[in-house]
Amino acid sequence: MTTSPVNSPMDKVVASAAEAVADVGEGASLAVGGFGLSGVPSVLIRALLERGVGGLHVVSNNCGTNGRGLGELLAAGRIARVTGSYVGENKEFARQYLAGEVEVELIPQGTLAERLRAGGCGIPAFYTPAGVGTMVAEGGLPWRHHPDGSVAVASPPKEVREFDGVPYVLERGIVTDFALVRAAKGDAYGNLVFAKAARNFNPLAAMAGRVTIAEVEELCDLDPDEVHLPGVFVRRVVPLTPEQAADKGVEKRTVTPASKEA
Length: 262
Fold this sequence. Notes:
The protein is α/β, with parallel strands linked by helices. About 20% of the residues lie in helices and about 25% in strands. The chain is built from eight helices and 13 strands.
């Protein structure tokens, strides 16, 4: 098991979320983990909201829901651009996009995952068959609208090249100024363990950030064999209180109707 680096320069624990995001500036780019509301770094997002910076460029699968996750920053008008795969479940996101208040680059979900991973591995670009023959490769996807609904900015065409007779489109790796992620467990070195579906985009987002900040539900020693993301990718670790760790949003709550006998 790892041993906590007491009073060591390798100790990455930060006392509060506010301290952890204190150097996130106006117009910063952020890779943010989570899928829907699963594994969303909500405490760090709220700390960023309280910090008051805006013009943020966010890379995330989606933009939270109304009033939860990245939806809090969106509702406050702090996000200028989103690179993601899904607009649904957030009516305010759709409204801002169609009204020209936020720029949105929609890309296939698997491509988004690989662009984040590539950026984290130092790979500047890669070829993929996803999107060949569509507007993803040919260009013309609306990135920003005018207030009247017409297209103000459209995606440019991308390079397409054949390998063994099969066409592939060139996609760029993603590297962001910061990354915000949430883990079930973490140690003082920044090694992280994610729980079940909350693993989703978190490891990939963490890899893509130049400065990655992780909020962890439990700060503890870890067995190296259980680590999902090594601490080399993580700069700061914020331990959550039990109340913060338990505060997890649910997008769609489905329950079994009570029986008449009950």
